[in-house]
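At this stage, I wrote out one protein's amino acid sequence and its backbone structure tokens, and that material follows here:
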Amino acid sequence: MTESTGLDPEDRKIITLARSARARNGVAEGAAVRDETGRTYVAGTVDLDSLKLTALQTAVAMAVASGAQSLEAAAVVTEATSPAACDRAAVRDLGGPDTPVLLAGADGALRSQTPAG
């Protein structure tokens, strides 16, 4: 899947937010998640000596810290060709196995949409 034109507008929104986080922070990945109430959480990669998190792990952690009970969708903008297993696990922990993980390139084009499960 390479086109994002068939995506729900809310899914396009989280891809755009993830893309913006990546560009704004100059990091390898940007991510965004949408919780059960429609709130979004946006993050970039954390790469400190004492703490290393992918962008999607960080976005999920932000959602949890803000009281989210579940996730509707997650998006990551990266050069990778598939979502990392640790990213899918983080989304699955909060959203469940059917929560979609959208993977897009730096240009925002959707590369894949897979369930977290």
User: Anything to note?
Assistant: The helical segments are 9-25, 55-65, 85-95. The radius of gyration is 12 Å. The longest strand covers residues 71-77. Residues 9-25 form the longest helix (17 residues).
